[in-house]
Design goal:
The chain is α/β, with parallel strands linked by helices. It is built from three helices and six strands, in the order E-H-E-E-E-E-H-E-H.
């Protein structure tokens, strides 16, 4: 949750640029908080003669395709805020380097997603909090699917077997 695909001109980013960019994006999402390992960035170099915008070659164009699986953005105000937050976050890697860019965000149903064979736990559940802390996917039981703040969770521990 999220998958960022970054289609960019050949040589636009060094290995260090990519590392820093990925760390910056991960830090943004980890403030939600979600497990850091949810954040995946794939950088794909595209030759200058393979990018056309409006039917015209465009060698200074970067395309971002984001997919969100674990969360949806509720309502138009939050959606607009998020798009603007993403544009602000990526500015040092596009705008400040003289590139044109485009961003789209798709929301994929969470129940059609798995990590290491595990369906991710519900938002704010005991299991999700454990995944954030451990920064890895692991099995969890029914008790851990319950929300952390629920008052009706007898027997829930940090790591439940059941």
């Amino acid at each position: 949750m999220p998958l960022w695909k970054v289609y960019h001109p050949v040589g636009a980013y060094s290995a260090q640029d990519k590392k820093e960019f990925a760390e910056t994006v991960t830090a943004m999402y980890s403030r939600i908080p979600i497990p850091k390992f949810y954040v995946v960035m794939i950088f794909e170099e595209v030759p200058a003669d393979s990018v056309y915008v409006g039917g015209v070659p465009h060698g200074k164009f970067i395309r971002f395709k984001l997919e969100h699986m674990a969360r949806t953005l509720p309502g138009p105000i939050v959606r607009e805020w998020w798009v603007k937050a993403v544009d602000q976050l990526i500015a040092p890697y596009v705008k400040d380097r003289g590139y044109d860019w485009e961003v789209t965000i798709d929301e994929v149903p969470a129940d059609l997603w798995s990590l290491q064979g595990e369906i991710p736990p519900p938002f704010e559940s005991h299991a999700e909090k454990r995944w954030v802390k451990e920064n890895q996917a692991s099995p969890y039981g029914l008790q851990e699917r319950l929300p952390v703040g629920a008052l009706f969770t007898p027997g829930v521990t940090e790591k439940s077997a059941g």
